[in-house]
Amino acid sequence: MIGTPRKAVLWRRRSAAVLGALALVLGGGTLLSGPVAAATSTFQVHCIPPGISGIPPFDGPTVADISVSDTTPQVGDTVTVTYVLDGPMANTSSFNLPIPEDQITPTVKVKLGGAQTQELTLVGPKDNPVIPAGAQFPNFTITGTFTVTAPGQITLTPGDYNVHSDYGISADTPCTVNNPPAPVAETINVTAPNGRHIALGSTSGPIGADVTVTGTGFTAGATVTVAGVQGAAATGEFTSVAADGSGAFSATLAVSDLDTTGIVAFEGGGYDPATAAGPVPYTVIDTTPPPPGSQKLTTSVKAGTLSMTQAGDTVEMAPVDFGEGGPSTGALRTVTVKDFRGGSTGWSLTGKVTDFKGPGGALIGADRLSWQPVCVAASGSPSTCAAGSAGTVGSTGATLASAPDATLAGGEFAVDAGLSLDVPAYSATGSYSGVLTLTLT
Question: What number of other Cβ atoms are within 10 A of residue 119's Cβ?
Answer without folding.
Answer: 12
